[in-house]
Specification:
The structure holds two protein chains of two kinds. Chain A is an all-alpha fold. Chain A is 76% helix and 1% strand. In chain A, helix 8 runs parallel beside helix 12 (246-271). Chain B has a domain at 104-337: MetI-like fold (Orthogonal Bundle). In chain B, strand 2 and strand 3 form a beta hairpin. In chain B, helix 7 (163-174) packs across helix 9 and helix 9 packs across helix 11 (243-271). Classes of the chains: A mainly alpha, B mainly alpha. At the A-B interface, helix 1, helix 8, helix 9, helix 10 and helix 12 of A face helix 1, helix 5, helix 6, helix 7 and helix 8 of B.
């Protein structure tokens, strides 16, 4: 459908509108791109006041760490090949090798293998290759852009950031699984029951959503610290101290996020025609059988969206995890603030930048893969009520 | 659906919400009226120091905690009424200041400092977020189809990023002689230190929050714009409405339910402002209500957590959000009754 002529904006307006859009995109992407660039430079370059020193990193280059033209070409080539592989070969390979019923498993394995291959190529093979080629290329082999991976090494290997990564992985996996299991059941129930009770439950959930998280954490903290004492009459000596336990935090995050999940999933289930489960009921299914056999196969788009938002809650949370977990079970986001104590040096700062970029990278991939679902989730609650 | 089946479907979720939202809430209310302290006793301790001819005997009165048979400090919990609230709100100090006429001094007390910031933060970002989000949505809607996908992708980045990291990434642009500070210094031809005084940090925080929320507002409005009635728009054109009038009288009324929805969500979320304080490490200059509670809950140098005060301050925070949300909630309620939702 083409826009009617009268609705078409004048050239001046179109210019202004597109200029504004370009400005917004720059604003949206700049801080993130910039910290990504910073994380590859030595501290003097990373916090330089001249943007070109940050981009090209003269000090980093002077320290002998950098990319030559040949490295750049190699890297870009490999990047392009990886992109082609991911968008074209990978999907067909997954479809080819995995039996139709286990396609999701095939995708998980395929993505893991691909990720591993990318890491091996970019961190293992390419650097080794460039070390061999560069010396006999003459001027083409001289470093052009400063680049160093030392901060990433410091963060992941020396500061054992992978431990925080594993904790984050545990917490987010737990939050997503439990929140979806509990949430889909309740969302389906709420969508299909037209009773006043269901309506009031939704209103209460909305009120719960407004509660500041610090209020709830104030409620948990004293109980969690003393939980071994409180639970002793029930569990005997096996009573656990909930403070510092990742699974306790998982349940807390699931519950905090439950109101939001309920609202979102309810609106998704309302879009699935009632006739579908009514037909199953006529054929003699109970409500649970109808849910299991008829609704479950068609609900995945909505569930994936709700899962994404649960993932974000578990992954991005600072307040709850930093108060309820102890140092050894800390997730990635609270752990990053340990770089900002009194005796912070420039190097610590750049390491913090590298850690921040490491935390952002999975989110970046997430938007790339699930853009459509995220947009769908954002509008689900609003447009359809 | 029968009540029993409904209960079976909703049960687990309801159980979790009762156990982890409703029960803690009751606990917080209870805590805010009680205080738990170690039981102290005052004993006279006689110290005998050997000396020449006679020993020196000193008697000192020492206050120490009472220990139980396991060697643990005995604690007692007692009802103190509104004591914790008075502590948090520093009511005596405020009364003295009010009598002395030093109104400005009140804003230097932690609670009022936090309240002032939280409220101004919420109310300033609110219209800005809606206006900016609407502008982006209109611009994307007017752009050619091919660039919409990439623009939406880039726009989602600030929304999806971890709030603390987002705040940090903006802070790193300005910290010390970072490139943005250098740019501002060059532009305004004066020395600038963004993190030396409160108001510049506040400006950065406002900027961060708008940057973070605009994608969400944009996506919601963009979806709403797809359903604007074309016939109404065309008849508006025939009636001679200018572009601005069409926006004012056709598009905005169409988006009104969405504006109310976004206001509701935004008020809830920005009233909870907390991650910015951590990301910008601004607690020396600017604090928010959630941060105040967080600070009470963090162990101090001797390892104690001020639970009762935290409970009192979270109760006050909650009262604030209730007052703030009454207007948009009533609006939503009216829409629901009118069958618009």
């Amino acid at each position: 459908m083409s826009t009617p002529k009268a609705l078409r904006p004048s050239p001046a307006l179109r210019l202004a509108s597109n200029g504004f859009l370009a400005f917004w995109c720059l604003l949206a992407a700049f801080p993130l791109c910039w910290i990504a660039v910073m994380s590859f430079k030595v501290p003097v370059d990373a916090f330089a006041s001249n943007p070109f020193s940050v981009l090209f990193g003269p000090e980093t280059r002077a320290a002998g760490k950098g990319l030559s033209i040949c490295d750049l070409l190699l890297g870009l080539g490999a990047l392009w090949a990886a992109f082609r592989l991911a968008t074209q070969r990978l999907p067909s390979a997954v479809v080819w090798y995995s039996p139709p019923r286990y396609r999701w498993l095939g995708w998980i394995i395929g993505v893991l293998v691909f990720g591993l291959a990318v890491v091996v190529v970019f961190y293992g093979i390419l650097p080794a290759l460039s070390r061999v080629i560069n010396p006999w290329l003459g001027p083409l082999g001289k470093p052009l852009i400063g680049l160093t991976l030392e901060h990433y090494r410091a963060v992941w290997v020396e500061n054992a950031f992978y431990r925080n990564f594993l904790n984050s992985l545990l917490v987010t996996t737990g939050v997503v699984t439990i929140s979806l299991t509990v949430g889909t059941l309740a969302g389906y129930g709420l969508a299909r029951s037209g009773s006043t009770l269901a309506f009031w439950l939704l209103v209460v959930a909305l009120i719960f959503r407004a509660l500041p998280h610090s209020v709830l954490v104030t409620g948990y903290l004293p109980v969690f610290i003393k939980s071994a004492e409180i639970l002793r009459p029930i569990f005997g000596d096996a009573a656990p101290t909930l403070y510092g336990k990742p699974w306790a935090v998982i349940f807390v995050l699931v519950s905090i996020n439950q109101p939001f999940t309920l609202w979102m999933l309810r609106s998704f289930f309302q879009n699935i025609p009632r006739e579908l489960d009514e037909a199953a009921r006529v054929d003699g299914c109970t409500h649970f059988q109808a849910f299991r056999r008829v609704i479950m196969p068609v609900m995945w788009p909505g569930v994936i969206t709700a899962g994404l938002f649960s993932f974000l809650v578990g992954y991005n949370d600072y307040l709850t995890t930093s108060l309820l977990l102890d140092a050894q079970n800390m997730t990635m986001v609270p752990a990053i603030t340990s770089y900002f104590n009194a005796e912070t040096t420039m190097t610590d700062q750049v390491e913090a930048v590298a850690a921040a970029v490491s935390i952002t990278a999975p989110l970046f991939l997430l938007v790339m893969v699930f853009q459509r679902q995220i947009v769908g989730g954002l509008t689900a609650g609003a447009v359809k009520g | 659906m029968k009540l029993k089946t409904f209960a079976a479907f909703v049960g687990p979720s309801l159980f979790l919400m009762c156990l982890f939202i409703a029960a803690p809430l009751v606990n917080v209310i209870w805590q805010s009226f009680h205080i738990t302290q170690p039981i102290m006793e005052t004993v006279a301790v006689e110290t005998v120091t050997p000396g020449f001819l006679t020993s020196t005997v000193t008697v000192e009165k020492v206050t120490r905690p009472v220990l139980d048979e396991k060697g643990q400090v005995k604690t007692e919990t007692r009802f103190v009424g509104l004591q914790s609230y008075r502590n948090v709100m520093a009511s005596e100090k405020v009364a003295a200041l009010l009598e002395g006429g030093a109104w400005g001094e009140i804003l230097k007390i932690d609670f009022y400092k936090a309240l002032r910031f939280t409220l101004t933060f919420t109310l300033i970002t609110w219209p800005l977020v809606i206006a900016f989000g609407l502008a982006v949505a209109l611009a994307v809607n007017a752009a050619v189809k091919a660039i919409r996908g990439p623009v939406i992708f880039v726009s989602l980045l600030p929304f999806i990023i971890t709030p603390v990291i987002g705040a940090l990434s903006i802070r790193w642009l300005f910290v010390g002689d970072g490139i943005m500070t250098a740019f501002l210094e060059w532009w305004l031809e004066r020395d600038i230190a963004m993190f030396a005084q409160g108001w510049t940090i506040e400006v950065l925080m406002l900027f961060y929050r708008i940057w973070h929320v605009v994608p969400f507002v944009f996506v919601v409005f963009y979806a709403g714009l797809q359903t604007v009635n074309m016939d109404t728009l065309e008849s508006a054109i025939i009636d001679g409405a200018s572009r601005w009038e069409r926006l004012r009288y056709v598009v905005v009324p169409h988006l009104m339910p969405l504006i109310v929805f976004i206001s509701l969500i935004h008020l809830m979320d920005s009233y909870r402002v907390f991650d910015e304080i951590v990301g910008f490490t601004s607690q020396g200059h600017v604090i928010s209500l959630q941060w105040l509670t967080y600070d009470f809950l963090t162990p101090d140098d001797s390892g104690n957590r001020a639970i009762s005060r935290a409970a009192a301050s979270s109760m006050l925070t909650m009262i604030g959000i209730v007052i703030l949300l009454i207007a948009p909630m009533r609006r939503t309620w009216a829409q629901h009754k009118g069958g618009q939702l």
